[in-house]
Amino acid sequence: MPRYRLLVEYDGRAFHGYQAQAGLPSVQEAIEDAIFAFSGERIRLQAAGRTDTGVHATGQVLHADLQKTWPARTVSEALNAHLVPQPVAILEASVAEGDWHARFSATGRRYLYRILNRRAPPALDQGRVWYVKKPLDTGAMLEAAQALIGTHDFTTFRDVGCQAKSPLRTLDEARVERVGEEVHLHFAARSFLHRQVRSMTGSLAEVGAGRWRREDLIAALEARDRTACGPVAPAHGLYLIGVAYD
Amino acid sequence: MPRYRLLVEYDGRAFHGYQAQAGLPSVQEAIEDAIFAFSGERIRLQAAGRTDTGVHATGQVLHADLQKTWPARTVSEALNAHLVPQPVAILEASVAEGDWHARFSATGRRYLYRILNRRAPPALDQGRVWYVKKPLDTGAMLEAAQALIGTHDFTTFRDVGCQAKSPLRTLDEARVERVGEEVHLHFAARSFLHRQVRSMTGSLAEVGAGRWRREDLIAALEARDRTACGPVAPAHGLYLIGVAYD
User: Fold this and answer.
1) Which pLDDT tens digit goes with each residue over B121-164?
2) Partner residue facing A121 (CB), from B58, B89, B126
3) Where is the Pseudouridine synthase I TruA alpha/beta domain (chains A, B) (predicted)?
4) What is the pLDDT of residue A193?
């Protein structure tokens, strides 16, 4: 029974998140339906990251266990054909080795958060960036972001509904850069808590707007209290851009 | 009576082209309605380029003659507020000098054509790129494109419905480059014939795919015959990115 590894891109606007939910369109259901249409097999996909409603991906990783063996190229081509016109694309399919698992073998996740930081609202990038009109001080954001790197109790930056047993996470990277009219925030960790990236981004935007100082961000982190978090940044600026495996 | 110059971005998917047409959504009507909502004045906009259905803009230039004088910043802010949620944004407004005219004073137009050239179809960029699966030889495209530069009778690359009196145009720039998974074609001229950029792009894609040689493109140009044109590239990969004024 071969296991196929799928590298996937999707536009989060079209879905109520990655995970299948009865009666609501999801990325998982779209791909599972395409697998059924192509192979006749009803399977359950496993995913490296369960992205929320509106969150995009350019590097989601999934796996599918199929009874029948197909050339990997056939799998990606057939799935893409069946996914039309939904905004989901299989960028690559390959046969996984040994007991590799899309979720449990993952050793790192990378997210990008895009802020459109200009006077005019987005036209071409509606639903793909967070529009922040007030000029953001990216230097101040970058400096403050360094306080988040390392192992911390991220209770402040975790959704109250987060199912993870521990609020401890190790943030390996928190980078802020201006790219034309946009501010990009890059985050990397072995794993993230629910809404952690959007919570950290919203609080860093407070620093960028001058409403918080770096010390306020540190105090928020150290409070280990969800109510100390800044406004949570919206889902539609967030992209799962990559998953690392050893 | 002040004349306001407007720099405009829009997503062409939402409109039946720039120009107002009874009963169909257009960029022109959207902005004229926003002007009326803001100022109470019913005016007719003038545009540097009349983009087709599905064609996008990041640098369209318009002008609006208003009876009342407003600070330019007020005009852009008020129009953006009234344009929500339509995918049109006024990037900048300024008061025009002398007899400056958005269309007649323009001395150059720049277009970008985006081709997504990878195996997988677009997910995040659906409706914003032309998806060409077969790998394109951008070197061959760039070399062939040079034959289009200069003053030519572009009858081959002009829509049969084109209203321009002369088929002669002077192409100042035709550049082809690979940008990640995309192929970008840049064109600049004082003005273009109807569907000229999409016609040239479609024919250059034939060269990139190896179905045409450079000599075939030259023969097509020299034929001065619309039927000699390659397949016209779709509207949704095209962007009006800038207008030049002396």
Assistant:
1) 999 999 999 999 999 999 999 999 999 999 999 999 999 999 99
2) B89
3) 8-104, 144-246
4) 97
* Residue B204 to residues A91, B53, B181, B198, B201, Cα–Cα distance (Å): 26, 22, 17, 10, 5
Q: How far is B29 from chain A (nearest CA, A)?
A: 16
Residue A189 is part of a domain; what is its CATH number?
Answer: 3.30.70.660
* B100 lies in some domain: no
* Chain B partners within 8 Å of A13 (Cβ): none
Closest CA to A28 of A13, A40, A16: A16
Structure-block tokens of residue A236: 């539609």
Which runs of E-coded beta strand occur in B66-157?
A: 88-95, 106-116, 130-131, 150-153
Q: Considering the domain boundaries, does residue B68 fall inside one?
A: yes
Catalytic pick from B11, B33, B52, B172? Answer: B52
A179 plus A91 within the same structural domain? no
Residue A111 marked in a binding site:
yes
Q: Note down the domain range covering A161.
A: 107-245
Do B116 and B233 lie in a common domain? yes
- Name the domain boundary from A95, A120, A142: A95
What tokens appear for B187 in the block?
């064109």
Instruction: Please tell me whether the interface predicted TM-score (ipTM) of this complex is above 0.95.
Output: no
pLDDT confidence of residue A98: 86
